[in-house]
Design goal:
Layout lengths: L1 H4 L13 H17 L1 H17 L24 H15 L2 E7 L5 H17 L2 H15 L1 E9 L8 E7 L4 E3 L11 E9 H7 L3 H4 L12 H6 L5 E14 L5 E12 L7 E2 L19 E5 L1 E2 L6 E2 L1 H27 L3 E3 L8 H5 L18 E3 L7 H18 L16 H11 L1 H28 L4 E6 L5 E6 L5 E2 L2 E2 L2 E7 L4 H16 L8 H9 L6 H32 L1 H25 L10 H11 L4
Antiparallel strand pairs: 1-18, 2-3, 2-9, 4-5, 5-6, 6-7, 7-8, 10-11, 12-13, 14-15, 16-17
Length: 620
């Protein structure tokens, strides 16, 4: 368990974490596990059902022969299709982040973090972590992130790390919905003894009195894992309130590590670590975990997953499919009744379809000797019931045909199909929105770890102007301004647009172009219209239109000045400049500028009149 043992510091002397306190913490750990057992069981049952239902190899031992079903049961993949479809929605919406300053002095730091954010997410292996956590969320109901400082990465320099954690490896106060409100939070996992003894030499003696502990886990792992050479390593996080020097209290984060089943002696206790100077293990004071539930429950930090929702209709569908297949098999292989004291027909000869002639012994054949067992054919009502169950499950989970790319007849326009798909993705959109909120919590902790541990400047690779590769430095000093911590607001956006968003955005851009919004001469009308609208990238577009309008106004002013000076010095050159203005700005804009030129005797200068006539073209 790399993320658990990474925080051990040598030389910690037990002071505050006494044996009595550690025993109390161990008792709380077992109490939490007992209170969370319904949650653990639900997660285990969902995973076990999903794994067994979709495991092809489990039926290979069933020998199926003609006329015998061998205990065959149909297992359709509607739940699997739902899980993979919702997971794909989440993976496609993998987020990235932007940092916005809260005060004027925070702008430089926010700009720097915004430039290095893609590189940092790449270093965190964020797309893989997001995909793994999204799978757990849609399948089992809750995804869990751990954000920690891995001191062994970067050749011992250390780096921020983000990891997806299983629900069964965590224990918290069962009745809280916000994990930060739990009195304690535990992370537990089996770790090989050899690895533990290499890190903690004192365990070689303590192992003699070792009594193996147990933690919740999925049953297939229990069968595969040999626990004789493994121990349960527990990492306990808790908060202490201490004075902040301003007349109020602040939360300080601590952790203690121990082996479940070993003498009441901690492996590490941050309260007794003199290197921390009483500031806590992480200065942000938050538990290094973020929970992302799918369908939340009252008095629980975890939620329901799609397996929990869809297992009942999936079972009904499989029962009906099993009956249909067996009925079809009976119809394809008819069965017969025979009279034993009459004519004799060998069973093997009757079932052997390769024989064109079936011999009969001891008499003649009629319906008294051999009669086909009648079969009841299923009518369309049974099929309709099965189809209605499928449709119910698809509507319940939001995995409708439209969301998977299929549309009804008559809908052929790309924009119409995209609009239908957008409307059918409401459930996925809500789930992704909740995951984005969790992502904000993850990035807030990651930024605080950068602020605490980036004491040595790091280089980050970024994409500069024109797509060129550039490098910038980032250190904890960049997160300070005038002796205070720089504060940010985190904005989330998808790494890439969805199909409907892309189509709508492109169509909006074409409409703006067709309406002349990008014409600098119409900048005022365009800005007034855009101000009443709301769409992604609005602020950037307003800024560009304003900048182009300013450049256009300056260009017109300089042209007027050049034309005025040329008129006084060289009328012939003035005429050429006037023609160039009419061609550059166009007939309408050029004519408006010419109309603002000073007139001689109440009339336009001759060269202006000639330029206007030439710009208008010959009369037809």
């Amino acid at each position: 368990m790399d993320e658990i043992v990474q925080g051990v510091l040598p030389g910690a002397q037990p002071k505050q974490m006494t044996r009595e306190r550690l025993r109390e913490i161990k008792a709380v750990h077992q109490k939490y596990i007992g209170g969370l057992m319904p949650t653990y069981n639900r997660v285990k049952q969902a995973e076990e059902w999903y794994r067994l239902h979709n495991t092809v190899m489990q039926n290979t031992t069933q020998k199926v022969e003609p006329g015998k079903d061998g205990g065959f049961t149909a297992q359709s993949a509607w739940v699997f299709n739902t899980v993979t479809s919702k997971r794909a929605d989440h993976v496609r919406a993998c987020p990235t982040t932007e940092f916005m300053p809260r005060e004027p002095g925070d702008q430089e730091a926010a700009k720097l973090l915004g430039r290095v954010a893609p590189y940092l997410l790449e270093r965190f292996k964020w797309p893989q972590v997001w995909a793994e956590t999204s799978t757990r969320k849609v399948k089992l109901g809750t995804g869990h992130y751990k954000i920690y400082w891995d001191k062994d990465r970067e050749n011992g320099l250390g780096e921020v790390a983000i990891k997806s954690i299983s629900t069964l490896n965590l224990a918290w106060q069962p009745t809280v919905t916000n994990i930060q409100e739990s009195e304690y939070i535990f992370q537990h996992e089996y770790v090989p003894w050899k690895r533990l003894e290499a890190m903690f030499p004192q365990l070689k003696e303590q192992r003699k009195n070792f009594a193996a502990g147990t933690i919740p886990e999925f049953w297939p792992d229990q069968e595969r894992r040999d626990k004789a050479d493994m121990a349960v390593l527990v990492e306990c996080w808790y908060k202490l309130a201490v004075p902040n020097g301003l007349g109020s209290m602040r939360q300080v984060l601590h952790k203690v590590m121990y082996i479940d089943g070993v003498d009441d002696e901690p492996l590490y206790a941050s309260e007794d670590d003199a290197n921390l100077n009483g500031e806590g293990y992480y200065r942000h004071g938050l538990y290094p975990y973020v929970f992302d539930p799918l369908f939340g429950l009252e008095d629980s930090a975890c939620g329901l997953g799609y397996v929990d929702i869809a297992v009942n209709p999936q079972t009904a569908i499989d029962v009906l499919n099993t009956a249909f297949i067996k009925n079809a098999a009976v119809g394809a292989l008819p069965r017969f009744m025979t009279q034993e004291d009459g004519a004799k027909i060998e069973e093997k000869d009757l079932l052997d379809t390769s024989k064109a002639i079936v011999p009969v012994k001891g008499g003649s054949i009629d319906e008294r000797v051999l009669r086909e067992i009648p079969q009841r054919h299923l009518d369309g009502n049974y099929i309709a019931v099965r189809d209605s169950m499928i449709q119910e499950m698809r509507e319940t989970t939001g995995n409708t045909e439209t969301s998977t790319g299929n549309t009804g007849s008559g809908v052929t326009a790309a924009s119409a199909i995209a609009a239908l798909q957008e409307a059918s993705n409401k459930i996925s959109d809500a789930s992704i929105s909740d995951s984005y909120n969790a992502f904000v919590g993850v990035m807030e902790q990651a930024v605080e770890l950068i602020r605490q541990f980036y004491t040595v400047p790091r280089y980050a690779r970024i994409t500069g102007q024109g797509g060129a590769v550039d490098f910038v430095q980032l250190s904890s000093s960049d997160m300070m301004h005038d002796g205070r911590n720089v504060q940010f607001d985190i904005s989330v956006k998808a790494t890439r647009m969805r199909g409907f968003d892309r189509v709508a955005h492109n169509e909006l851009a074409l409409q703006f172009y067709g309406l002349g919004f990008f014409d600098p001469a119409r900048a005022e009308q365009a800005l007034m219209t855009i101000d009443m609208m709301d769409f992604p990238g609005k602020d950037a577009l307003v800024q560009k239109i304003g900048e182009h309008a300013t450049l256009h106004q300056k260009l017109v002013q300089y042209m007027q000045m050049a034309l005025t000076y040329a008129q006084q010095v060289d009328p012939a050159a003035a005429q050429m400049i006037a023609q160039d203005i009419m061609q550059t700005l166009g007939q309408e804009a050029g004519g408006q500028m010419m109309g603002r030129m000073p007139k001689v005797g109440g009339q336009e200068p001759p060269h202006v009149q000639q330029a206007r006539q030439r710009g208008q073209g010959p009369e037809v």
